[in-house]
């Protein structure tokens, strides 16, 4: 049976959830992190944790996918206050697009200024290898082409404008910071950048679909992230996102490869440590930058 879907959450619904959370923790996060499939280890890095199971949070959906623990974790990452979704929601779980992006609006009302998202994705770019980390510079929002956009429905100006700009969705300074941090950490060989394409899932792509996406300019394909990015940008948060290339998308009919979720989780395990180090180092630099801009 599919979980309950509700079409649209009011500002008051989101505020009620944010206030409920704020009443139970002293952490006032400036950075909000969303962990992709098999990448929830990032949340375990937080110190002084106050954690909530999604099932206990008012209005929150439940995680139904293996590799998504279903916990919202508050704490400090290298001394910086953060909140981390250990598990995200996807359209294919049967939730409305408004529901899968609800936590992003709650981030905003918790005081988050920068959202960092990770995901597992299939590599379309023929220069990519399994285990590469792709800094996302742009996206193709396929569900949006079909009218399934998280901002569809009445617009509440308290979140943002009716027609938000998306040409600067992925913060360029943060992309450069990721490149610099990646170089410092010695990740040069497997740090890439590219365009992420979101599909509805849960079926993986056919060969014809993969070829089409590649021709359209996508470097990696997955089933998440872009709706969250749209909602985050709508309400004025800075966005950084990266994909772990967990598998090579099958582009040839005579290939013996078959996409599967186990491979996705396995690659996540193998690269988790580097990915966590990249994101956590960036968090310390973002924080320094914020402090600096307040002083100036
Ligand atoms: O995007 P995340 O949540 O990392 O998960 C990716 O991995 C799953 C497929 O294996 C899909 O849910 C896809 O979107």
Automatic annotation (TrEMBL):
InterPro entries, per the entry: Nucleoside_phosphorylase_d, Nucleoside_phosphorylase_sf, Pur_Nuc_Pase_Ino/Guo-sp, Purine_phosphorylase
Residues that bind phosphate: 37, 68, 88-90, 120, 224
Keyword Transit peptide applies: no
Reaction equations catalysed: 2'-deoxyguanosine + phosphate = 2-deoxy-alpha-D-ribose 1-phosphate + guanine; 2'-deoxyinosine + phosphate = 2-deoxy-alpha-D-ribose 1-phosphate + hypoxanthine; guanosine + phosphate = alpha-D-ribose 1-phosphate + guanine; inosine + phosphate = alpha-D-ribose 1-phosphate + hypoxanthine
EC number: 2.4.2.1
GO molecular function terms attached to this record: purine-nucleoside phosphorylase activity
Superkingdom of origin: Eukaryota
GO cellular component terms given for this protein: cytoplasm
Keyword Signal: no
Keywords assigned by UniProt, alphabetized: Glycosyltransferase, Purine salvage, Transferase
The protein's annotated pathway: Purine metabolism; purine nucleoside salvage
Residues binding a purine D-ribonucleoside, per UniProt: 205, 247
Family matches, as Gene3D superfamilies: Nucleoside phosphorylase domain
A GO BP entry: purine ribonucleoside salvage
Residues annotated as domain Nucleoside phosphorylase: 30-283
Family note: Belongs to the PNP/MTAP phosphorylase family.
Function: The purine nucleoside phosphorylases catalyze the phosphorolytic breakdown of the N-glycosidic bond in the beta-(deoxy)ribonucleoside molecules, with the formation of the corresponding free purine bases and pentose-1-phosphate.
Protein name from the UniProt record: Purine nucleoside phosphorylase
Organism (species): Sander lucioperca
Phylogenetic classification of the source organism: Eukaryota, Metazoa, Chordata, Craniata, Vertebrata
Gene designation: pnp5a
